[in-house]
Write a structure and sequence with these properties.
The structure holds two protein chains of two kinds. By secondary structure, chain A is α+β, with helices and mostly antiparallel strands. Chain A has 18 helices and ten strands. Chain A has two domains: 214 residues, Periplasmic binding protein-like II (D-Maltodextrin-Binding Protein, domain 2, 3-Layer(aba) Sandwich), CATH 3.40.190.10; 207 residues, D-Maltodextrin-Binding Protein, domain 2 (3-Layer(aba) Sandwich), CATH 3.40.190. The chains are: A alpha+beta, B mainly alpha. Chains A and B meet through helix 4 and helix 17 of A and helix 12 of B.
Chain lengths: 437, 298
């Protein structure tokens, strides 16, 4: 780093402290180049247009050296760690992936003034803090699920009467996981129509299992960090998936389904109820993409037997590497991409923000749009009870040994207890191999 | 005293040796070394912890690894044999065509032009239980009223993958065998006919022995492909559900990159390479046998 660049960075850093809080230009970094590895994809691109604004304002240059989906970016970052090539500065990050990269990202609290961080939802900042280090600033790509349903099915008088006769309580959008299962079985008419569906592999099913487990009062890892999901709460959670599959209330291909399959399935009008992410909000109600546009209702995520709602959440963010030569400039860019204006722009397209003021803004904007207001209210309830995955560097690796066992139970190869016991043993080995136990 | 110099022939070979070392030997050596370590991508320092044969010892007792190994052998055996039979049939039919043989040969090669990833997506969609072409066709024809779980059921998922593999690669066999058929001298066939051989006898004792070397070359090439089968399976089932279609390379890639356990993945890969070597040796031996038989008989 040249002397002038160092001076610019130093000046920039001090300017940054004064300006960030005021939602103003984040410093001056003339001649500095910030290399970035960013998540790519249609829904993430709009924000990157703002990078030009930051460049003009600071005099710095951003060089995007990699743009990939998160799974590919994850592999690339792991390879960078293995080869020690972490000289780039800004990287896209995700709450599920972040614990895997111990020590490669800087503590942003040390780079940014406290009031620059005050506008974020506190629970989200907590979730972005690992080992007392704020490793990323969350962007307006917060994910927590809620229940989408076909309204007409719930308004149909014949359905209401028949359901109450069969299940003994009135038909209404599900408030618990048990109610969701009852309704899914009631509405199912395979192979033309299914009651519900779920993602059946990889982290997707492990995450869904995790949130039903938590809603049932169980824990994935106990206080000592040992796998504890083969408890009664875990068996009940897994049995929920098993029963729906056995009752043909879900498509029999679900063990191979991931998020896109679920979104397309619900939009095709062949599924009654769908617990899904906020990113689909616009898609489901758009006549161009959805056969059920205008007929979609949204309810908060269901409660488990403990009375708590499910709230497995994740969010995208930006981090600054430890090896970055200009961390102040990088932190400025990260802050800029997650400030109020950036979040307003991103959330206008549907994704949920991670700043309180932007939440207020999008709810006010949605006034008069019944569907969007209802959806945002449901997702706001979901966000209040949201929690991330266990903060273990081995989370993804554990899900890789857990999900085949969950599938084995769903397909009837093992009982729920047998599958969870085998999964817990495999997850224990993963944690022991990683030196976490 | 004259200074020692590298002999010219060695000097001339040196660039090739250096390039080969950089491209092949060093990466192979590094991956072999890492298979004796607990190397994790996210903890580069683990590359220097020598643990001897512990990765290999763990694999020896790992039922999931050996299931994947067995499934890979099964896939190799069944896919190669079916591809050879179908390729032979295709080649014989095309060779018989008196008109449009060039167009037919080009059409036959179409599947090879698709990337395996595209083939995977295409067949994943076709075999989708809900919106797939196969189930919709069967239901429309009244042959079934249920959604057949093509990519879920143990046997059906394996068959679906096999169909995709065979569709994409049968042409390799057909082309090799067709080349053999076109290069075959006509005299022995005419002699067989004059001697009163039936068409089957002509094929069995004259045509097939001549084609065998071509078939074994195709077998060798395809055995390496199938033993590394990854793309199509990754897209169609990713080894699932419940590890029902797990083969060596889906397991190895997950271990190496998702789990970041590169040391263990390399140990698996070295065992997998033994499998490829074994199949290649078998086919080379068969190839030499077939060649000597032709040399003796013709």
């Amino acid at each position: 780093m040249t002397y002038s660049a160092k001076l610019a960075a130093l000046l920039g850093g001090s300017l940054l402290a004064g300006m960030a809080a005021a939602q103003d230009l984040p410093g001056s970094f003339d001649g500095v180049t910030v290399q970035a590895k960013l998540i790519g994809g249609q829904q993430y691109e709009a924000l990157y247009a703002r990078i030009n604004e930051w460049q003009e304002a600071t005099g710095a240059t951003v060089e995007v050296i990699s743009k990939k989906n998160h799974f590919e970016l994850d592999r690339e970052i792991k390879s960078d760690i293995a080869t020690g090539q972490l000289g780039w500065c800004v990287g896209s990050n995700h709450s599920s992936f972040a614990p895997q990269y111990p020590g490669i990202y800087q503590d942003l609290r040390a780079l940014l003034p406290e009031d620059a961080l005050s506008g974020f939802v506190p629970a989200t900042l907590d979730a972005a803090t690992l080992d007392d280090r704020l490793v990323m600033l969350p962007r307006a790509q917060f994910d927590v699920s809620a229940v989408y349903y076909q309204k007409s099915l719930y308004e149909d008088e014949a359905n209401k009467t028949a359901f109450e006769e069969e299940y003994g309580y009135p038909l209404a959008p599900p408030d618990t996981w048990d109610q969701l299962a009852d309704q899914a079985k009631f509405f199912a008419d395979p192979p033309d129509f299914y009651g519900t569906q779920y993602a059946g592999k990889e982290e997707a099913i492990a995450g869904r299992f995790y949130e039903i487990l938590k809603a049932n009062g169980g824990e994935f890892l106990n206080a000592d960090g040992e796998p504890a999901f083969n408890s009664d709460a875990g068996v009940a959670a897994l049995q929920w998936f098993v029963d729906l599959y056995a009752a043909n209330a879900v498509p029999n291909g679900v063990p191979n389904y991931l998020w896109d399959d679920l979104g397309q399935g619900f939009a095709s009008g062949t599924v009654a109820v769908n617990h899904d992410w906020p990113g689909w909000m616009g898609f489901f109600n758009d006549p161009e993409s959805s056969k059920i546009a205008g007929n979609v209702g949204v309810a908060p995520p269901p409660k488990g037997s403990s009375g708590a709602r499910s709230g497995w959440s994740g969010f995208h963010g930006f981090s600054v590497t430890e090896d970055c030569e200009n961390p102040e400039a990088a932190a400025s860019l990260v802050w800029f991409l997650t400030n109020e204006d950036s979040q307003k722009m991103e959330s206008a397209a549907g994704p949920l923000p991670t700043r309180s003021a932007v939440w207020d803004h999008i709810i006010a904007e949605a006034e008069g749009d019944e569907y969007r207001s209802e959806a945002l209210t449901a997702f706001q309830v979901a966000a209040e009870g949201a929690y991330p995955v266990p903060r273990s560097p081995s989370w993804i690796e554990m899900t890789n040994v857990v999900y085949p066992e969950l599938q084995a139970a769903i397909l009837g190869d093992k009982s729920a207890q047998e599958a969870l016991d085998a999964a817990a043993e495999a997850a224990t080995n993963v944690l022991m191999d990683a030196g976490e136990l | 005293m004259k200074p020692w110099r590298l002999p010219p022939h060695l000097l001339l070979l040196l660039p090739a040796v250096l390039i080969l070392a950089a491209i092949v030997v060093i990466p192979l050596g590094l991956s072999l070394w890492s298979s004796f370590t607990p190397f994790r991508l996210t903890r580069p320092d683990t590359m220097y912890d020598f643990i001897g044969l512990r990765n290999y010892a763990r694999l020896l007792g790992d039922a999931q690894f050996w299931s994947a190994f067995g499934r890979t052998v099964l896939l190799l055996t069944v896919a190669l044999n079916l591809e050879m039979v179908l390729g032979l049939g295709l080649a014989l039919l095309i060779e018989r065509a008196s008109r449009g043989q060039r167009i037919l040969r080009t059409i036959m090669m179409f599947p090879m032009m698709f990337s395996p990833v595209l083939v995977g997506f295409q067949f994943k969609f076709m075999f989708n239980d809900n919106v797939g072409l196969v189930n919709n066709a069967l239901q429309s024809l009244g042959l079934t009223d249920r959604a057949i779980p093509w990519l879920i059921d143990q046997n059906l998922a394996f068959i679906s993958i096999m169909v995709a593999e065979i569709w994409s690669s049968t042409a390799v066999f057909a082309i090799f065998i067709l080349a053999g058929l076109m290069a075959m001298p006509r005299d022995p066939l005419e002699a067989a006919r004059v001697d009163g051989c039936t068409p089957w006898q002509t094929f069995r004792y004259v045509t097939w022995p001549f084609l065998m070397p071509f078939a074994f070359i195709a077998m060798t090439i395809r055995s390496l492909d199938v033993a590394r089968a990854y793309d199509i399976i990754k897209i169609m089932t990713d080894g699932g559900p419940a590890r029902r279609t797990e083969v060596l390379w889906t397991l190895i890639s997950r271990t190496a990159y998702s789990d970041a356990r590169m040391g263990m993945a390399n140990a698996m890969a070295y065992i997998a390479i033994l499998l490829s070597i074994a199949f290649t040796l078998i086919f080379f031996r068969q190839l030499s046998k077939a060649r000597s038989q032709i040399a003796a008989e013709w």
